[in-house]
Amino acid sequence: MTLAYINDELHLNGHSLKGLAAQYGTPLFVYDEDALRSQCRRFHSVFEGEALDYSISYASKAFTSIQMVKLLEEENMKLDVVSAGELYMALEAGFPAADIHFHGNNKTAEEIEYALEMGIGLFVVDAVDEVALIDRLADHPVDVLLRINPGIDVNTHSYIQTGQEDSKFGLSIHNGTAESAIDMIHKSDKLNFKGVHYHLGSQISEEGPFLKALDVVFEWLSNASIDVEILNMGGGYGVRYTEADVRFPIEEGFSRIIGKLKTLAAEYDIALPHIMIEPGRSIAAEAGTTIYEVGVVKDIPGVSRYVSIDGGMSDHIRTPLYDAEYEVLTVEAGDGESIDSHVVGKLCESGDIIGKNLSLPDDISRGDLVAVATTGAYHYSMASNYNQMRKPAVVFVTEDDVREVIRRQSLKQLVQNDVI
Ligand code: LLP
């Protein structure tokens, strides 16, 4: 977001990437903390002054850490978690349990017990079987939303579509399973039915699918005479990875979504429920940049050039997994010729690719630094120890501060669970 060349050297929020790499090593994730905060504030500002009750819940899966959770609490966000691990992270950061929502299509009994014991605010029930499971495990009343599947197809990668009829997520509103789950919830004396949730998919660039979902869901709620106190519209607001991507227009898009909500509430003569949304990517993605150091540069004359960096699919899985495209910038701006290059990682897989056919200076060589923009969401959080790579460090920068928020994994940590 605030990546800029100053005196031919790439800076993030005024900090030299070269300086950060020298201090913290590479690969390194650098987040513009001001950008993280301002995205949270943008989402708040589209609801403030709209005379409706709302909350914004950040999807931890996009990127979580203790300092990230603390920042989110300071920015008045609620938090979604999908595992005992994400819940533990949130609680370790001191996040109020009552503001945590537990998602997931297959919460284990152990996870449910842990969340109940910690007193989390809301369970988002994702299966008929889960109604009985939570009912059996709970020893106190718990508020629940039901994750419904509105059967809306969105135009995004098939791995990140979630609201279509054929999905492991949610209960269909078209074949009666959602209604029977709601009946079951009403029959339980421990589960309080608070409303419904849906998530259409991820990296959605326009409000069309969200408007369509509202039509479908309001009609269903009205026909089935279901009263909801909370309507959770999920996340999925798209960001810009390369110039080809269209960002979800947060201000205009939500002005239409909120307008639609008000119209439908009036049309069906129901009070507007508490509205929740769950952005993840749109808060974190563009705030983050990864810095790598170049190692081997391999020219295959007349064929191609491979520029290898010191990380790869262990910290950047989105290209191998989704064919996602990124911009790769050299940290020092050169004025020489650029040539077509493949930027690849150092892991033992041919698919370990950061970007294909990118334009990079012809004299790029060992020791040079490159930066990959828009890597703040689903990068660190999807990082692995494949090839026993160590997870990188993460730093947050503001205009006048730099702080390490996650240290680089050590070699010792790689064997800490091994029986010796
Ligand atoms: N709420 C629910 C229930 C979700 O399943 C998700 C994402 C979100 C909110 C947040 O969606 P976002 O605003 O971040 O798009 N690893 C994939 C993305 C998987 C998203 C899964 N669910 C990727 O790197 O593109």
TrEMBL record:
Q: Which residues form the active site?
A: 348
One of the GO BP terms on file: lysine biosynthetic process via diaminopimelate
Q: Does the keyword GTP-binding apply?
A: no
Enumerate the InterPro entries for this protein.
Ala_racemase/Decarboxylase_C (IPR009006), DAP_deCOOHase_LysA (IPR002986), De-COase2_C (IPR022643), De-COase2_CS (IPR022657), De-COase2_N (IPR022644), Orn/DAP/Arg_de-COase (IPR000183), PLP-binding_barrel (IPR029066)
Binding-site list for substrate: 281, 318, 322, 349, 378
Task: Write one Gene Ontology MF term.
Answer: diaminopimelate decarboxylase activity
The protein's superkingdom reads Bacteria
Q: Which residues carry this modification: N6-(pyridoxal phosphate)lysine?
A: 61
Quickly give the catalysed reaction.
meso-2,6-diaminopimelate + H(+) = L-lysine + CO2
The EC number of this protein is: 4.1.1.20
Which pathway does this chain act in? Amino-acid biosynthesis; L-lysine biosynthesis via DAP pathway; L-lysine from DL-2,6-diaminopimelate: step 1/1
Binding, pyridoxal 5'-phosphate: 236, 278-281, 378
**Entry cofactors:** pyridoxal 5'-phosphate
Sorted UniProt keywords: Amino-acid biosynthesis, Decarboxylase, Lyase, Lysine biosynthesis, Pyridoxal phosphate
Gene3D superfamilies from the UniProt entry: Alanine racemase (3.20.20.10), Lyase, Ornithine Decarboxylase, Chain A, domain 1 (2.40.37.10)
Domain Orn/DAP/Arg decarboxylase 2 N-terminal residue range list: 35-285
What broad class of enzyme is this?
lyase
The chain positions of domain Orn/DAP/Arg decarboxylase 2 C-terminal read 29-376
What does the protein in this record do? Specifically catalyzes the decarboxylation of meso-diaminopimelate (meso-DAP) to L-lysine.
Q: How does it assemble?
A: Homodimer.
Family per similarity comment: Belongs to the Orn/Lys/Arg decarboxylase class-II family. LysA subfamily.
This one is known as: Diaminopimelate decarboxylase
Identify the species of origin.
Answer: Salinicoccus roseus
